[in-house]
Request: fold
Amino acid sequence: KQEVTQIPAALSVPEGENLVLNCSFTDSAIYNLQWFRQDPGKGLTSLLLIQSSQREQTSGRLNASLDKSSGRSTLYIAASQPGDSATYLCAVRLSNDYKLSFGAGTTVTVRA
Amino acid sequence: ETGVTQTPRHLVMGMTNKKSLKCEQHLGHNAMYWYKQSAKKPLELMFVYSLEERVENNSVPSRFSPECPNSSHLFLHLHTLQPEDSALYLCASSQGQGADGYTFGSGTRLTVV
Reply:
């Protein structure tokens, strides 16, 4: 059974600081890994999708890396803004499986 | 309408009621999912439909009954729920097994009283 862990559970930083969010998974036979953002009481917005053959993906201020052999992914958010305050979720899909396994998320607060 | 749309956004129901949640996707995907998100817990997969056939039922109680009449629509029929079923119910879709990722709707916040 795939277990996904996100550390830290919560993070509070001043505006402008870079954010580093960690995700680890137990089964390295993944097909892809997806980072999502969730605002309170809302659905999930996809941020980045990394295929198992890739090492990283970038979109604007966001960069996600993947080290499949060590079972880790890191989401970097550069120059954080108050609008980045949300919960960030990591989800992993195993090969030949429909199921996404989610971490519990990291709740980020960016202070103005 | 684009993406994945869920209705209603909020629902309050008594334990003896019957209600349905609706999900519609406009992405041309052929797989649809129901997930449950309870407070302080990771998202839990409930059901998966691929090409309108149920391919996964994640040990969900029979008081939850899914229906997928076509590849664009997914329903979750609810009856005799318990207060612990109160949660955010999220619908998602993908093309195949999600090689291009998953798209989620905004969710239905369900409160059982």
